[in-house]
C-alpha cells in the first residue's frame, strides 16, 4: 500500500507560520472558531493517521488553535481599537448562542427540560475548551461574558451554567453572588429538569441530568450551610439565597408527594430530587458539617410544613399514616434524610421540633414510622423518649407532652410487635402499676383520667377497649374516678356500635380505628398468637389464662370454637395439639366440647383417607396450571387411564383451593346465583378462568381429530370432577353468568364454542341435581342450571342477539352431535331447552328465509341425518363459515326439527311475546317496517293457526288478542327483570308500541269480521275485552283484605289496562245488540267494569281521569250511530249510566267544561243536523243552575234532574269558586231541607262528596288541603243536622236512596267513613253536637262508627293528623263523646234489632 509520510518535529512550526500568513489574508475569526468547534474537524488528523496518534494530534490542534486565536484576536483588537477581552467575549458568545439557540433546541425545549442534544453538548464542550485556553492566556473576561450572556434578561440554560462551572470559566458560586434574578430562573429550571424523564435506553442523558443536579445542589448546600468561618454580610446574603432555593425545591417536593397519592404520574420529578439527598453526591462541594446542617434543616422544614391538622384529627386519622399506607416517595425521602444521623440524634431533634414548632402531625408520625421500620434498634430510644415526655408531662401537668407521648406510642404500636410493643402493653407498662407516673398523687391521677376523657370523642374504638380492659392503676379510694371514665368510654363504644365481648385477647396491630375485624376472624388471630406464644415459651400465656376467668363468654364462645376447629390431626403432635392438651390439663376446656372435637377430627381423617397428598409448599394455583396442561397433553395422546388419574389429581388440588366437604351438595336443593354482585374472591376467579380456558383448549384439540359423537367421555368426566365442590360450582356459575351477560362481545369463536360445550355438559351432569335460584329472583322459582345460565343471554339489542344466536348455535349443534348415539331421553340431556327456544325465536327473526321454511318433524333418525352430523359440526367449527350458514343448516336439520315437537322444547306464543317486548327498538336488528312484517308473520302465520296445546291460538283471533293483552300487562306488572336490574332497557325503548299496534290491528279485524259475519248480537270485542281485564284484575287481588302490595299491583294493572283502553277505538267498549228488529245500546259491561275495577284505583278517590271519561263517552256517541234513533239511544244509555254508574256520572259533571266542546263537535259530525241529546243537554243545564246558584241568583228553576247530578254540579261549582266560600254558603241556604225532599237529598249527596274530598285530602295531603272541605262539611251539617238522612252516608248497609254513593268512592274511603264521622263531629260546636244527638238514629250510627274506628286502629291504620288532634286523641275523645251521647239518649232510641246489631 501507500506509505504515509510521518510529520517531523519542525512541521508544527512551519504549519504555525503558514497559518498566520493565511489569517493575514482571510481574517474571519468567527468562522475559524466555528470550524474548530466542530468535533469532526478537530479529529481530522486522527482520521488520517489512526488512533495511535490521536492524543498527539489533539494536543497539536489545541495548541495551534489557541495561539492562532489569541494572535488573531490581538491583531484584530488593535486594528479596531477595542480590548481583546471584549472581542473574545463577543466571539465566544456568538458561537455559544449559535450552539444553544438552534431551531431544534427551541422545538425540543419542553421535551428535554434544560438539557442539550448530544451534538450540541459536544460542540459546547469544544467551545469551552478553547475558551479555557483563551482564559489561560488572559484573552477572555468571564465576568464580562456573564454580563453579556444575561443581557436583555436572557434566561440561561442550566446545563450551560453547569458546563461553565465544570470548565472553571464561571463558577456557580460567582453566578449566585452576581446574578440578582438567579432565584427565579434557577428554581424553575431545577423543577423542569427534575420533571423531565429521559427516553428509555438513553443512559448518557440520564447521567448528564444526574451530574447537573448533583453539582448544582452541592454548590447550593456548600454555600448555604458552610459555617467554617465567620460570614460577612455578603456571605450571609448568599447563604440565605441558597437556603431559599433549596427550600423552594423542598416545598415543591412535598406538594408533589401529596399529589402523587391521587395522580400516579406526579411522582417522577420528586423521585429524582429525592435521589439528590445523598452524601456521596453532595460531598464533593459541601463538607460533612454543611451536609448535616442541610439535612437537619430539611427535616425541620418537612416536619413543620403546612400544619393544618389538629391533634384531634391526628388521633382519628393516625391509623392511615402507617409505613405501609404512606406514600413510598415520602418514606424514601425520610430515609434519605435520616441515613447520616444516629437514632438518638433524630429523636432528640424530633422532640426539639415538637416543643418549639407547630408541626404537621402526618409528617411527624410518618417520619417516626419510617425511622422505626428502617432501624429495628430504635425501639429502646423511642421508649426512652416516651419516658422523658411522660415524666415531663406529669411534673408540669403539660398536656402537649402528654399528647405527644400517646401519639408517638400509638404510632410505634401500629407498625406491629416486631417494631414496637403493642399499645396495650405500653399502656399497661406505663400506667398499670403502682409505680406509674400517675400514681404519685391524686392530682396526677385526675390529670391522666381527665386527659383520657378528653380523648374519648375522637378515640378509635380499639384504644377505648384497651383502656377499659387494662385500666390504669387506681387506689381503691379513688375508684369512682376511674369508673366515671369507664362509663364514658363504654357509652362511646355503644354509640360506635362496638362490642367489648368481640374484642380479641391480643391487640389488633393492623391499625386501630379502621374497619372492625369480624369476631370469628379475631378469634382465629387470637388462637394463632396464643399457639405461637405457647410454642416459643412452653407455657400458656397469661392473657389466655386471664381470659378464661375474667372474659369467660368470649373464651367459651369465640376462642375455644376457633381453637377446636376439626381437622386431620398429624401423626406427631404439633404446637396446636400440645396447646390444646395443656389447656385440657388446666381444666380450661369443657369435657363435652373436647370429646366432640376428638370425634370430629376422627371423622375428618376418615373422609380424607383416600385423598392423594399434595405438597402444600407449592402454590396451588401453579400446581393446578401444570396439572391442567398435563391433562391437555394426555387428551391429545388419547390415554384414557392417565386422563382419569390426572383428573383425580386436579380434583385434589381444587379441594385445597376450594376447601369444603366432599358431600356438600348432597341434600342441597337450591344453589344461589347472585347476578348483580358476584361473591367469588379474586383467587377463585383466577382458578375458574384457568379451568374454562383449559376446557376450551381441550375441546379444540379433541375436535381436530373427531366430532363430538366420536370423542371419548373426557368432557363429561372433566365437568363431573368440578361438581363435587359446591364452592367451586358456585364460582363457575357466577363466572359463566358474568361472561354471558357482560362480556359476550369480547369472546373469541374458540372461547364461545368451548363455553357452549361446557354449559351442555354442566346441564347434562346436573340434570337430576340441585336447582339454581337467581338472586335477585328474576325467575319466579329455582330452575335447572342450563336455564339459569341461559337467562343471562338477553336479546334486547342487535349485539346481544348476535352473541346469543352464536352461543346457542354452538351449544345446540354440539348437543345434537354429542347425543347422537344415545337413547332419545339421554339425547335431550345434552340439548338445553332454553337455549333451543332462543334459537326458535332468533333464527326466524334474523333470517327471513327461515320464515318461509317452517320446522316440520321428520321421521325417525335416518341415514341422511347420520350424513348431516359431520357437516353440521364442521359448519359450527369452520372459521370461514358464518353464523348465518350454520343457522340455516341447523334450521333444516332433522334432529333440530324433531325437538320442536317435544313439549319442553316448544316456544309458546306467550314466551315469544315476552322476548319481543324486551327488544330495544332503537338498537334492534330490524328496521320498523321489517319488525312490523316479522311480528305480523309470527302472529298470523306462525301462532294463530297453531293448536293451543302446542302453544298457539287454535285459529281463534280472540285467543291471539288475549295473549297480546296479557303480555302487555304482564310486562308492566313484572317487578323483577334482568333488564331493569341492569338498566339496559327503559320501558319507553321496548317494542311495547309495536305490540300495542298489533293488538289494535287484530282487535279491529276481529270487530269487522264479527260485523260482516252475521246480524247477531255483537258481543265479540266488548265482552271479550272486559271479561279479560276482569279476570286479570281478579287474579291480581285475590284476598278479602288486600295487602298494600296487592293494592299497588291492582292499581298498576288497571293503569296499564287504561293505556290499552285509550289506544283502542272507543266504540269497541259499547255493545250494540239487535232484538225484535231494533238496534239498541247495552252498557252493562262498561258499568260493571267501572264499578268493580276503575272505582278502586281512582286518584283522587271518586273521580275518573278526564281522558278516560272522554273516551267512554265518545264510545257511547259513536255506537249510537249504528242505532236507528241515535239521540234516543244516547238518552236511554245515559239514564242507565246515571242510575247504575254514579262514578262515571260524577266524573262527567266534574270534567264537563272540557268535555262538552269535544262531545258537541263529535255529535255534529256523527248526526249532522240533529240536536244534542236531552240527557247531555241536561248536564249543561245543571252546570248553569249550579253556577247561578253559587252567584246568588235564586231565580233560575231547578232542572228536572236526579239529586246526585244536581249535587255533583253544585260540588263542581263549589270547587271552582276558589276561596269565596261565604257566597256559596249563602247559596246553600236557598236549598234548605225544609223546602222539599229533593233539596234534602241534594244536600246529603253534596255532603257525601265533600266528606270524600276531606278524606282524600287527608290521604294525599300533598295534593290538596282538607281545610276547605272541612268548612263546607260544617256548613252542610248545620243545614242537615236535624234530619236523619245525613247519617245514612256513614252506614254501609242502610243507605236507602243514597245507596249509589258506595259506587262513587274507593273501598279505602268507605272503610274510613267512621273516622270521618268522628273527625268532623268532634270539631263542631257543643250546640251542633247536642242537636246531632237528638237526631233520630244518631246513637245507632255513632256506635257503629265507633266499632269501625276501633277496627281501623286495631289494623294499624293511621292518617295524617288534622290541625286540632292527633289520631290517638281522636280515639280517646271519641270514646268520651260516645259515652256522653249514650248517657243523654233514652233506651228507646234503639230498636231491638239495632240493639242486637251493636
Question: What's this entry about, in short?
Answer:
With 1398 residues, this protein is mostly helical. The chain is 65% helix and 1% strand. The strands form two sheets. It has a two-stranded parallel ribbon. A two-stranded antiparallel sheet has the order 3-4.
Structural class: mainly alpha
> Poorly predicted ranges (pLDDT <50, ≥5 residues)?
1-5, 40-60, 509-517, 609-617, 661-667, 857-867, 1013-1018
Largest sheet: 2 strands, parallel
Helix content: 55-70%
Terminus-to-terminus distance = 142 Å
Please give the order of strands in the largest beta sheet: 1-2
- What value does the average pLDDT take? 81
Question: Got a strand count?
Answer: 4
